[in-house]
Amino acid sequence: MKNIKLIWAFVLLIITAIGCNNDDSDRRGSVLLSFTYSGCKNVAESQVVRGSDVESIMGTETFQYEGIGNDNLLISHVNALYGCDAELSATAIIENRNIIIKEENAVTHSLVNCVCPFDLTMVIGSLSPGKYTIKVYREDDELYSSFIIDYTPDVKGEQRVQSL
What we know:
single chain; mainly beta; 5-stranded antiparallel sheet; globular
């Protein structure tokens, strides 16, 4: 009888250990700790030259990322192009080691007088070390950009936007 109790105690211990998984690879709740954006960045008329491409006028669109302590990741979407009257927000979740970010513009009319670059900054947390695919969607729910990082608390890097 004593052996049966010992076996049951061991089985319960194993079940408890399996159930206490702290892996953050599938956290469907929000992991976005903060979000800010710059507003429309000025583009000097002197930058506009006949035949210029968008990048030479507006700047290179990039994602910059950096570990900032407490297992958090700072992500900046630099020179994101939106209508000049944009009112931006973002959401983020983690799903199967994917950090899924959705950038949204509350101004939904289809005609704009101008387009300008914005800097969007968000803090994602808390992460455990390892590889993550960052997937960024825009308001049309289509994948806008995707890249892989190997997260550590001191990670730092930049990824040029490759629109898909």
